[in-house]
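tool_call: predict_structure(chain=1)
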Amino acid sequence: MYAKKVMEHFMHPKNVGEIKDADGIGEEGNARCGDIMRIFIKVEKDKIVDIKFKTFGCGAAIASSDALCELAKGKTVEEAKKITNKDIVDFLGGEMPGIKLHCSVLGMQALRNAIKDYEKKSL
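tool_result:
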């Protein structure tokens, strides 16, 4: 049902956790399916130098959160804003059941919310 890479990121996520002094925190959730993602970012000189997640949800939600972190780490804030749910799915091998595609959308939105929080605090 899931691609090998999805299972790897679900079973062995590298970026799970919380950043206590995060520069931005974003949350996105879907009460209908029960998936809730929280993304923490640390930004230095306009680059995301650290990113962590805490996700309550299915395997696809956890894998999408971890993949998102891998994609965003080291990118500038502007580059990270351009990460799409398709980028997340592609990173995970391009195979995710249609019913689980919303997990990648939640990840994308959680990152954008964390960036908005960072930008608001930076004013």
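agent: The first helix runs from residue 4 to 11. Proceeding to next step.
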